[in-house]
Q: What sequence folds into this?
């Protein structure tokens, strides 16, 4: 048998639940303001980038000493396009694309909220046709709960209050006057009464929903306009990037036609490196576009009842790929002991004829997406070079590669992975770093690498005295 206080608790809880539901139905949607600010590190990074660009131009012009000024300017401009302007434009385009996607998501969410409110209105109008505008849902719900939950000798007293009240507010006021309610329960019931007064009956609730729809409609229109503006801004940034790429293609073509004017070996090497970097940027852009097209096909929903053809696989997302799943069959090999000089085992049958690459241990790109190791695997794959999936951190590749039959030495080769020791040339400690050799000069190499300027951002550097590094072939 329940005591009177416990009965009141049941009723009060029911009232509070209904009150919360009623208040949620009419609560205004408050937009969340996000603050953005340039940090000190952003300013430092910008200054460092400008200083690096100035040093690069100075070194390049020193190699072009004696070359005609217009030809030297063409080479420097193409280098600036490839290493500074195009990456900056690409970053702005990526940020604009992300902002446009976020704005569209907010607009879609606002439209869904408006649609839900309109459905609430439609459902309530249908109920009003059945019961009229004066029907009090809260009072009816509490009365039904009391009928189902109350048992005991004084049930009739509670029921008399319940059924005798003409509306919810009168019921709560009647219950407050009874000794069965404790002080806390009386306060809670009073608060519930205030909340429930906003939706005394279905007619008033309909008015509240209509007011909410008006606000949601304005919010939806605002967010839709913001999404449209963001989409236009993103398109402008993409157009600017494409214009710079077209300019780079034109300058590269012009430079290739004037290479015969370069008689000095240092100038020829400098021009060739600039041309190669521009070509790499173009090829990488083409590869990314192809992967994006493949990803769009994957995103298409397969019709129900159909199956994917045997042997087909799902391509990975190109621009922001998720981390590839770990294969099930192989287990990650244990790292061998650290030798002072890596051994040079015989290249296995899966390797190339030049002792570069191997199919041994290659189960797909299992490295963290966007990191230097991820790019080294991807870039070597583009070059037709196999790479084991579990060579560890970039600074460990030179140590772990021999266990897979890869040749490791101090001789640079196009396509080789340069495994930086921790702290070497700015490599992180204790993880080290890894890059891919793109070209080899008389006393220099040009490398491509990821995550120096951020995840998925591919940059290029020219390093001198290449014999001091470890190369994984």
A:
């Amino acid at each position: 048998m329940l005591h009177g206080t416990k009965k009141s608790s049941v009723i009060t809880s029911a009232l509070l639940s209904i009150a919360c539901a009623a208040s949620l139905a009419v609560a205004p949607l408050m937009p969340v303001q996000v603050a953005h600010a340039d940090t000190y590190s952003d300013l430092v990074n910008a200054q460092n980038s400008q200083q690096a660009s100035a040093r690069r131009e100075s070194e390049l012009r020193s190699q072009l000493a004696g070359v005609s000024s217009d030809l030297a300017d063409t080479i420097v401009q193409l280098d600036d396009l490839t290493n500074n302007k195009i990456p900056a434009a690409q970053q702005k385009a990526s940020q604009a694309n992300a902002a446009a996607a976020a704005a569209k998501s907010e607009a879609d969410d606002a439209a869904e909220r408006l649609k839900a409110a309109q459905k609430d209105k439609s459902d309530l109008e249908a109920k009003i046709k059945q019961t009229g505008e004066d029907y009090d849902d809260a009072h009816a719900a509490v009365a039904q709960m009391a009928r189902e939950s109350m048992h005991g000798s004084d049930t009739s007293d509670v029921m008399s209050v319940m059924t005798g009240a003409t509306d919810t507010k009168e019921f709560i006021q009647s219950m407050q006057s009874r000794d069965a309610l404790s002080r806390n329960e009386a306060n809670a019931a009073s608060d519930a009464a205030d909340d429930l007064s906003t939706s005394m009956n279905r007619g008033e609730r309909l008015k509240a929903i209509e007011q909410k729809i008006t606000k949601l409609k304005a919010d939806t229109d605002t967010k839709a306009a913001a999404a449209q503006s963001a989409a236009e801004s993103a398109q402008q940034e993409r157009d600017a990037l494409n214009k710079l790429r077209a300019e780079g293609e034109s300058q590269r073509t012009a430079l290739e036609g004037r290479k015969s004017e370069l008689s000095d070996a240092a100038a020829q090497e400098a021009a060739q490196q600039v041309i190669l970097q521009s070509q790499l940027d173009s090829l990488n852009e083409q590869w990314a576009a192809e992967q994006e097209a493949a990803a769009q096909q994957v995103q298409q929903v397969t019709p129900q009842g159909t199956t994917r053809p045997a042997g087909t696989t799902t391509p990975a997302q190109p621009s922001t790929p998720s981390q590839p799943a770990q294969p099930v069959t192989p287990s990650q090999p244990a790292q061998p002991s650290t030798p002072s000089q890596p051994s040079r085992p015989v290249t296995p049958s899966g390797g190339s004829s030049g002792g570069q690459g191997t199919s041994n241990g290659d189960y797909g790109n299992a490295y963290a997406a966007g990191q230097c190791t991820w790019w080294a695997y991807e870039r070597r794959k583009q070059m037709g070079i196999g790479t084991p999936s579990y060579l560890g951190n970039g600074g460990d590749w030179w140590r772990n590669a021999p266990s897979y039959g890869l040749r490791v030495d101090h001789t640079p080769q196009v396509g080789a992975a340069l495994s930086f020791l921790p702290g070497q040339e700015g490599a992180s400690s204790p993880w080290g770093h890894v890059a891919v050799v793109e070209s080899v000069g008389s006393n220099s190499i040009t490398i491509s690498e990821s995550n120096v300027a951020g995840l998925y951002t591919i940059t290029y550097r020219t390093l001198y005295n290449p014999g001091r590094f470890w190369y994984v072939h």
Notes: DSSP finds eleven helices and six strands in the chain. The longest strand covers residues 433-440. The radius of gyration is 35 Å.
